[in-house]
Amino acid sequence: MHVENRPVEKKKRTTLWLRFRKNKGALVSMIVLLIILITTIFAPFFSTYDPGKTNLRGRLSPPSLAPMTEGAAPHILGTDQQGRDVYSRLVHGSRVTLNVGITVATFGAIIGIILGLLAGYFGGWTDMIIMRIVDIWASSPIFLISLTFVMVLGPGERSLIIAFLFNSWTLFCRMARSQAMAIRNSDMVESGRAIGAGTGRILGRHIMTNIISPLITTYVMEIAHYINAEANLSFLGFGVQPPATSWGLLIGEGRTYITSAWWIVLFPGLMIGITVLCLNLVGNWVREEFDPLSIKQ
Amino acid sequence: MSKVTKNHILLSLRGLKKYFPIGGGLLTKAKSHVHAVDGVNLDIYEKQTLGLVGESGCGKTTIGRLSLKLLPKTAGEVYFNGRNIFKFTKEEEQKFREQAQLIFQDSFSSFDSRNTIGTIIGEPLAVHKIAKGKELQDRVAELLRTVGLKPDLMYEYPHTLAAGQKQCVGIARSIALKPKFIVADEPISALDVSVRAMVLNLLKDLQNTHNLTYMFISHDIRVVRWLSSHVAVMYLGKLVEYAPTEEIFKNRLHPYTEALLCAVPIESPRDRHIQREILLGEVPSPVDPPPGCRFAPRCKLAEERCFIEDPILEERTPGHFVSCFVDFRGDAEIS
To answer: Which of A154, A239, B92, B284 has the most Cβ atoms closer than 10 angstroms to its Cβ?
Structure first.
């Protein structure tokens, strides 16, 4: 038999890392996100003051590298209306903010993708029941539901997460369903059934891996979305309650001083902006990277 | 080989029907049905090849899928080795999935493009827990060699291969479990003419070395003649003629078979003077098939009876089945 073969040696495939390094935007974003994540996890080590410690004599002092009193750490991002160190509050506040964003997106993705896969693959009654639930869930206004939860469970991080979860899984469910439906009748799935692969294997090994890239992108974008949502609710006073803090709450508390002490609002605002931007850039990169048509060479 | 094993029937279809609903949802009834396969009886003998021919849309592919239990049937039965495949237990079904395989028209579309060739070919072995690790790799390398490819290809991704190679990989995957029966669904239609012969030869070689039984689905009656021991001609969901290959080429008893043969282009320019009947008209819609013989509206020999009564497939001469009221004998010159 004569088949023409190109000379085949085990090809040096460019590694993920090499391709990643080429994409400057994604690389920088990833580094920034890592820094934010590390400072968040080890917040007590990075903060220079107790975030709740007030100092009324040093209130509303602008950012400065010089220590206020001998031997004390400088308030590099200034102090707020009660003399608390803005930098330390920023470092601690990211805990709540990131926690809400990541938890909501992660659990939303797990629940939504599993239900969406089942609905899309099996169709029929399974699909109808799951999707009607999605419709009901998704049609409820997220902010009103959040407010209800705050009323019932009391304000705080936990109520926020539960309220957001109500909404976040539906997006993943819809996406996973439509992708699974598109692939359900493909030759690939039929080929899997023909060799005797079980439903679990077909769903997990083949359908899941082929629809995961848009879902990863959505996941990253959803983290950004819920960071914003948390900030909004906390800003309005329905989210995290003092003395706990989050980026949104910092902005909310500082808004009355925006004309006289811009630093209280500016830095948490910047942090939200940077984090969301970086997440979007990384999300974009992931989408390009895992596009099945672009895994050439 | 003894005569007994030669005549052993591996797969038989009995009154097989498949209707696809059109419209309708969970709560509403379907408005109408596509009569894709409408009562087909057929036997496939062990280690032989049945060529299934017909125009596109006549239900060839559906018969192939039903024979492998990849579609639910509407009515009728399929027996594999004498056992009804629609009544299999779970264990029997797993065993059946080892013994019966499918080759796709476009193998590439049947691959998970995120996997390497090695994973794709080795998947059946992994699913049935036959081999793993180093042993699996060795088996894959051997399979690649069997289909005439280099074992190194197992590290490649499918999109880097040429069309003929992809089809060979598809064949390697389908023989990985050492099956008895393979449905080849137009395995060469999507290929360049230059690699068709290679793939056909491979299929023929494998049949001898692996004792395979094929259901070879094609719209090209020349290819079927070369590869098959028996030919079944389909028209609009029904069999119109079924006989051993040489018999059907010598004594064509159905006008549609004749028309299919006349549609084959004449190879030599010197034979251009040969007059041939070319079939006119369109295939009627399978949603609302005509009453009586389905071929009657296009048949120039059709009598009054043909439009009212539906002819059944009957054995005219031993082994030669036809469903036609007219006493027809094809006489066109064919090369």
So the answer is: A239
Q: Phi and psi for A270 in degrees, rounded to 5?
A: -60, -45
Q: Report the phi/psi class of residue B216: left, alpha or beta, with left for phi > 0 and alpha for psi in -120 to 50.
A: beta
Instruction: Enter the ipTM.
Output: 0.86
pLDDT single digits (tens) A246-276: 888 888 888 888 888 888 888 988 998 899 8
CB contact under 8 Å between B101 and A295, yes or no, is no
Shortest Cα–Cα distance, B98 to chain A (Å) = 7
Q: Which amino acid is at B174?
A: S
Q: Do B127 and A201 touch (CB under 8 A)?
A: yes
Whole-angstrom Cα distance, residue B227 to residue B184?
12
Tokens (6 digits) for B122: 């080795």
Of B26, B68, B113, nearest to A194 by CB-CB distance is B68
Say how far apart CA B65 and CA A193 lie, in whole Å. 11
CB distance B198 to A1 below 8 Å: yes
CA distance A221 to chain B (A): 24
- At A75-129, the pLDDT tens digits run 878 888 887 888 888 888 888 888 889 999 999 999 999 999 999 999 889 999 9
Q: Is A66 within 8 Å of chain B by CB? A: no
The answer to whether the CB of B147 falls within 8 A of the CB of B202 is yes
